[in-house]
Amino acid sequence: MINVEDPFCWEKHRKILTSRESGIPALQTFGICSNNRAGQPLHTHVHNGCMEIVFVVKGFQIYEAEGEVFNLSGSDIFVAYPGEPHSSGSYPESVCSLIWMQIKLENGIPFFGLDESHAGYLRESLRSLPRFFSGDAALRNTLTEAFYGLAEENEGERYLAEQQLVYSLFRMIKLSQKLVARQADSIEEAVAYIHANLGKPILLEEAADSCGLSLSRFKVKFKEEVGVTPREYINLVKIEKAKRLLEQNASVTDTALSLGFSTPNYFAVSFKKYTGLTPREYQERMR
């Protein structure tokens, strides 16, 4: 099993602070990213000694742990416990914005500047977080401010950011205790429908029906929650699936037919639009 420790990164769409940059020994990783296109599936991995908390700011993301699949959309929170294998299953990483952190829970590590009594309480409360619950806009804003504050060189800004992060963790605990009913028209139903029907042409009317929405409302709501139009999302997912098939030496024709493209030529045009390569060029490069 792969143990993952994300390194420091400061790019336009992906920024990561490690404990070295944040100055917080218990905070192994604190990251923020905006995926503007679907990516490869997140392979099964663990974070030894750390729990991971992922806040979906915008869009849609799928995680798998303990054999169960969790569909997250805007403001949802996913928790992976220390040393627990998790992944995105067979689903590609979606177009979304995320804030995530990996927290060391071992006793003896300075814990966000808290005295041992408060540190012990916070550790135990974090260990008891449910797998999946909903956050809110206030939590999102505080986490974002805390992240950029920890990246500052000013000592006062960094101290304030650490306190904001402590506040955010306690707020997560409080929010996790609220039971919020999922809406019947949730876009996650349409996303699940899309992934279940990749082998045929997908009609947007049917995807809209799967979550109980009119076609016009479905298109608007899908773009709001996922970040791209339904058709763009379908194409992104199909192309990512096509990559996996081509890497396994499937023929271009078989790949096109298995993913519901009307002709191999249309598949090749679509593939090049999203990858910059024809299917055959992609296979050659992978070899």
Task: Explain this structure.
With 287 residues, the protein is of the alpha+beta class. The protein has two domains: 2-176, Sandwich (Jelly Rolls), CATH 2.60.120.280; 187-286, Arc Repressor Mutant, subunit A. 44% of the residues lie in helices and 21% in strands. Strands 2, 3, 4, 6, 7, 8, 9, 10 and 11 form a nine-stranded antiparallel sheet that branches. Strands 1-5 form a two-stranded parallel ribbon. Helix 5 packs across helix 6. The longest helix is centred in the middle third of the chain and has 22 residues, at 155-176. The radius of gyration is 21 Å and the shape is elongated. The model has no long low-confidence stretch (mean pLDDT 88).
Annotation, overall tally of beta strands: 11
Class by SSE composition: alpha+beta
Strand content is: 15-25%
Q: Examine the coordinates and then state which fold CATH places here, giving the name of the CATH topology of the largest domain.
A: Jelly Rolls
Low-confidence stretches: none
Q: State mean pLDDT (0 to 100 scale).
A: 88
List the helices and strands and how they pair.
Blueprint: E1 2-3, E2 9-10, E3 14-18, H1 19-22, E4 27-35, E5 45-46, E6 50-65, E7 68-73, E8 76-80, E9 86-87, E10 96-104, H2 116-127, E11 132-134, H3 137-150, H4 155-176, H5 187-196, H6 204-210, H7 215-226, H8 230-247, H9 252-258, H10 264-275, H11 279-286
Parallel strand pairs: 1-5
Antiparallel strand pairs: 2-3, 3-4, 4-10, 6-7, 6-8, 6-9, 6-10, 8-11
Helix pairs in contact: 3-4, 5-6, 6-7, 8-10, 9-10
Provide the descriptors you would attach to this structure in a database record.
about 290 residues; alpha+beta; Jelly Rolls; Arc Repressor Mutant, subunit A; nine-stranded antiparallel sheet; two-stranded parallel ribbon; 11 strands; about 45% helix; elongated
